[in-house]
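We read letters as residues; the fold follows as tokens. Both lines appear below.
***
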Amino acid sequence: MNITKEEIFDTVKTITVDELDVDEDRVTMNARIKDDLDADSLDVFEIMNELEDKFEIELDADEGIETISDVVDFVKKQLDEK
């Protein structure tokens, strides 16, 4: 699947805003999911599940993912390996 990081970020941002009910401008590449966006483990799990469904990939929430950038990079890596 040939998709850019910007396209992945847009999808991650939309899902994160919907899931966490946070302002769109808080979801930046450098935003820390738990610290900056006040997500708990269940929130992260829900976000990862939605991303798996959207991109048809498998994500492991225990991959050291802390920031939105980490999520985008991990999704990109999974898509590139498909």
Notes: The chain has three helices and no strands. Helices lie at 5-20, 41-55, 68-81. The radius of gyration is 11 Å.
